UniProtKB/TrEMBL annotation, chain A:
E.C. designation(s): 2.2.1.1
InterPro entries: PDH/Transketolase, THDP-binding, Transketo_C/PFOR_II, Transketolase-like_Pyr-bd, Transketolase_C
The species this protein was found in: Catenibacillus scindens
Domain Transketolase-like pyrimidine-binding per the UniProt entry, residue ranges: 7-172
GO function terms (MF aspect): transketolase activity
Sequence similarity: Belongs to the transketolase family.
The UniProt record lists the keyword Thylakoid: no
Record PANTHER family: PYRUVATE DEHYDROGENASE E1 COMPONENT, TRANSKETOLASE-LIKE PYRIMIDINE-BINDING DOMAIN-CONTAINING PROTEIN
Lineage of the organism: Bacteria, Bacillati, Bacillota, Clostridia, Lachnospirales
Cofactors required: thiamine diphosphate
Key words, A-Z: Thiamine pyrophosphate, Transferase
Protein name, per record: Transketolase
Automatic annotation (TrEMBL), chain B:
CDD domains xref list: TPP_TK (cd02012)
rRNA-binding recorded as keyword: no
Family: Belongs to the transketolase family.
Domain of life: Bacteria
GO molecular function annotations of the record: metal ion binding; transketolase activity
Species annotation: Catenibacillus scindens
PROSITE patterns from the UniProt entry: TRANSKETOLASE_1
Family annotation (Gene3D superfamilies): 3.40.50.970
Record key words, sorted: Metal-binding, Thiamine pyrophosphate, Transferase
Main enzyme class: transferase
Limits of the Transketolase N-terminal domain: 13-262
EC number: 2.2.1.1
UniProt-listed Pfam families: Transketolase_N
The name this protein goes by in its record: Transketolase
């Protein structure tokens, strides 16, 4: 699929909302003065009456989303991951999570691939925060095909869903015609026998690259795409751990509380297996072009392969 | 409902508050009692609601943004017939549906889960916006504390409501003048409350929130306002109706012991009797 142009999953989000909005009149989109950046601007253009700009007030936006959902709307509240999961954490927890309201949180600009804006805007903690809320579904799609499918699945799901999108254009690695998305089901992208690389979001393409590098070194790596971090596909994780005996997790997120932690929890309790978490190592990010940062923080194919070879 | 009947009902609501908090051995009687007349007026006179059909999509909505005064809301809902008055004694007990703060998932008649201060008003604004978008005529009422409005989110919500001209929204501030740490004016003054809401493009009415004539007049006025939300600044007495709790900051979040409970219930019984003789 490499002939397709790379596209940021935030763009997929906006496009998917337009498509869903045509079919579903109860879908409503909220923004906090970032419609151009969250890519919901296309929805605003198509359905101006169902796009509500709340201004720079994310806490209030979360409450408005909660109130609208009690009236039968399906709100998609959109802002950067830092503000959706960070600034408005307690509003998401208490006004949306506790009453288990049917609100979808479209969080763009997640992780260090925000790039030049630097550490204040690079949210590497959102998966940890959102996954700790009872009943919250947490989805981190890896490409355009998966992101659009995830938005549709989130709409169809009854209850709160956190959708994590990126700013950076990423390669399209899934084949639209054959791709199937199911909340809570991981996808094996490549079979292998020596180790398993479990990746999420934009790190999935890096994990595939790493598997290619490792193959040349005589290491057979299985690659799993975990798009839904909660509920986690425990069965798939355990099966892969049993088969290969060694697991690596890769995410554009802190190694504390994200995919790596989720996998560690299930393996620790149900199938103790040597595990190495690859991610942001408990540090803040920094300014720089996204691709350079991904390389610097060891999240590209080369960086992942190096960790796997080290063992 | 005439004022006498409302006053009698408010006495029953206050009995329920004191009973629930006494049984729970914890909770917030002061702000429940100060707002008891407002709760009573809303549920027995003002709002278009039906205890037999609490989820009716066309009903008026109420959000208790100052959610810690749940005993006031619960006692009102119970007396209105949403659930048995007897259940008030299970407040805050393990396994009871009557949670310490309003829980819309388990308590009939509760329109929004709330309690973390500052959040409820945003949810009420969302409901008011939803009504406008759907072309429905229901109204949304939110009750905030005068301490609660120290939360910045209140003003985010007020800015949005004023900006969107949500005239189906009525915010009531229970201005009982005390918060846990002391007088609101000393802790971090929110005054002038009326001017603040005015500057956020609200129609503002100052009233005595323990007087049914004034509550009725303000609610009626709010319904005639076009193009802006209304804020009713209700000047009330914290602990109203139980002499030793009135204007005492210590009764913000303290439950009466058995002796105090007996005295409070006797006072309320006498107040109810006096109203019957009128």
């Amino acid at each position: 699929m490499s002939e397709l142009k790379p596209i940021a999953t935030r763009e997929s989000y906006g496009n998917a909302l337009v498509k869903l909005g045509e079919a579903h009149k109860d879908l409503i989109v909220l923004d906090a003065d970032l419609a151009a950046a969250t890519k919901t601007g296309v929805f605003k253009k198509a359905f101006p009456d169902r796009h509500i700009d709340c201004g720079i007030a994310e806490a209030n936006m979360a409450g408005i989303a909660a109130g609208l959902s009690t009236c039968g709307f399906v709100p998609f509240m959109s802002t950067f991951a830092m503000f959706a999961a960070g600034r408005a954490f307690e509003q998401v927890r208490n006004s949306i999570g506790y009453p288990h309201l049917n609100v979808k949180i479209g969080a763009t600009h997640a992780g260090i691939s925000v790039g030049e804006d630097g550490a204040t805007h690079q949210c590497n903690e959102d998966i940890a925060l959102m996954r700790a809320i009872p009943g919250m579904v947490v989805i981190n799609p890896c490409d355009d095909v998966e992101a659009r499918a995830a938005v549709e699945a989130a709409y169809a799901w009854e209850g709160p869903v956190y959708l994590r999108f990126g700013r950076l254009a990423v390669p399209v690695i899934n084949d639209e015609a054959s791709y199937k998305f199911e909340i809570g089901k991981g996808i094996t992208l490549r079979e292998g026998s020596d180790c398993t690389i479990i990746a999420t979001g934009l790190c999935v393409s890096g994990a595939l690259e790493a598997a290619g590098i490792l193959e040349k070194e005589g290491i057979s790596a299985q690659v799993i795409n975990i798009h839904t971090i909660k509920p986690l596909d425990e069965e798939l994780v355990i099966k892969a751990a049993q088969k290969t005996g060694r697991v690596f997790t890769v995410e554009e997120h802190s190694i504390i509380g994200g995919l790596g932690s989720a996998v560690a929890e299930v393996l620790g309790e149900k199938c103790p297996t040597p595990l190495k978490r690859i991610g942001i190592n408990d540090v803040f990010g920094e300014s720089g072009p996204a691709k350079e940062l991904i390389h610097k923080y060891g999240l590209d194919g080369e960086g992942i392969a190096a960790v796997v070879m080290k063992g | 409902m005439d004022n006498l009947k409302l006053m009698q009902t408010a006495v029953e609501v206050r009995k329920g508050i004191v009973t629930a908090v006494h049984s729970a051995k914890s909770g917030h009687p002061g702000g429940s009692l100060s707002a008891a007349d407002i709760f009573t007026f809303l549920y027995f006179e003002e709002m278009n609601i039906d205890p037999a059909n609490p989820k009716n999509p066309d009903r008026d909505r109420f959000v208790l943004s100052k959610g810690h005064t749940a005993p006031g809301l619960y006692s009102t809902l119970a007396n209105r017939g949403y659930f048995p008055v007897e259940d008030l004694k299970t407040l805050r007990h393990t396994g009871s549906y009557l949670q310490g703060h309003p829980d819309m998932k388990h308590i009939p008649g509760v329109d929004m889960s709330s309690g973390s201060l500052g959040q409820g008003l945003s949810c009420a604004v969302g409901m008011a916006l939803g009504g406008k978008l759907q072309g429905k005529s229901y109204r949304v009422y939110a009750l905030c504390g005068d301490g609660e409005i120290q939360e910045g989110q209140i003003w985010e919500a007020a800015m949005f409501a004023g900006s969107r001209k949500l005239d189906n929204l009525c915010v009531i501030v229970d201005n009982n003048k005390l918060q846990i740490d002391g007088p609101v004016e000393e802790v971090c003054s929110p005054y002038p409350i009326d001017k603040k809401f005015e500057s956020f493009n609200f129609h503002v009415i100052n009233i005595n929130g323990n007087d049914f004539d004034e509550i009725r007049k303000a609610m009626n006025e709010a319904k005639t306002v076009n193009g802006m939300p209304t804020a009713i600044i209700a000047h009330t007495v914290k602990g109203r109706g139980v002499s030793f709790m009135e204007d005492q900051v210590g009764w913000h979040g303290t439950a009466p012991n058995d002796e105090q409970y007996a005295i409070a219930m006797e006072e309320l019984r006498k107040a109810g009797e006096a109203l019957c003789q009128n």
